[in-house]
Amino acid sequence: MTNYRWRIVVLLFVATTINYLDRQVISLLKPTLEVVFNWTETDYSHVVMAFQGAYALSYVVFGRLIDVIGTKLGYTIAVCLWSVAAMMHALATSTFGFGAYRALLGLGEGGNFPAAIKTVAEWFPRKERALATGIFNSGTNIGAVVAPILVPWVLGVYGWQMAFLLTGLVGFIWVIFWWWSYENPQRHKKLSKEELVYITSDAESNAGGSVPWLDLLRYRQTWAFVLGKLLTDPVWWFFLFWLPSYFASSFNLDLKKPSLPLIFVYTAATLGSVGGGYLSGYFIRRGWTVNRSRKTAMFLYALCIVPIALTRYATNIWEVVGLLSLAVAAHQAWSANLFTLVSDMFPKNAVSSVVGLGGMAGSVGGLLFPIVVGALLDTYKAAGNISIGYNYLFVICGSAYLLAWLCIHLFAPRMKPIDLPTNSPEAP
């Protein structure tokens, strides 16, 4: 049997790495851009919100579009759009300009996960989907690890504009490989008959056309995923956009040099993503139900994030790095399983649309949370102790996942697969 499906995962991994590299650049350039454009924490939060608002819209639009036009073309459009937008940041001459280009970046980047999750649903049986999702989702962390090494070097040698130009250019190289390598499994010439039989081994119906959004919103399973994303995605955005400045302000970390603490934190997230996807698959192979396997794994990951509230008691930077590493690793493990819930409960023709709806909800949360972040940090920065503001934020982050797990269990207590054309919807 061939193993071409794992080549597809590699492509998804690289695309996700590029996706996060492009968005992570601004957080590492924040101290430089604050001087160039005279930003306050609130100004920076507005730039972040411009990205989040557009990202939320893009998630649901691309989620629908990809179900209609297909994964190959939809993914290509998304990557080309966000790569152009990333490069355009070099043209910014004002805070408004940065906000506009961040919004355009968000419009493109929102297509990544609907396309990637749909690809996994098309190319993998259920027992391998969480692992495949964890592998490509680890690209979010590799991008975050590469950025603290690459961006300070480019900044020091060529200036902040070149950092945006170089990272944006990589996306166009990926598109060439994607267009050359990808095709639907049923039509792929490099796929053996044995692997195709394995990929399609699950009894899944409803392989027809796309499903209207309003029909999807009538199902409790949709709301389980939507609420899970709404409550936990804002935490990850906070980790991405504020951790560099947290280390800079609380521990005098020089972001103009490669940042070892950030590299440790985001490397831990990579391990959490792959390991988190493996654990629930391991439970399934031992004979557990999909419902029990996913929820047990996710509950364990939610518990691992709670200790982040203890950062206020840390006495040195490496104690904080340890707590944050555990939290981001657990978040990525949680995220790999949360995304997989969609393909566990919905047929392939609705996966991208449901991911889009949940992604939009998560991005709306990510749009609103920076308001709280900016207000808290500016308040305590003015009082001369910004660390107190971060302490409150870490408490909020530590409690979000247990609440999200409870919502998922209440809205999808048995996590049964649904048959959209024939089953009667369950009112949320």
TrEMBL record:
One GO MF term, please?
hexuronate transmembrane transporter activity
Name the Pfam families for this protein. MFS_1 (PF07690)
Can you supply one Gene Ontology CC term for this chain's record? membrane
Task: Name the CDD domains on file.
Answer: MFS_ExuT_GudP_like
Cross-referenced InterPro entries: MFS, MFS_dom, MFS_Na/Anion_cotransporter, MFS_trans_sf
TM region positions: 47-66, 73-92, 158-180, 223-243, 263-284, 296-314, 354-377, 389-412
All residue ranges annotated as the Major facilitator superfamily (MFS) profile domain in the record = 8-416
Name of the protein in its database record: MFS transporter, ACS family, hexuronate transporter
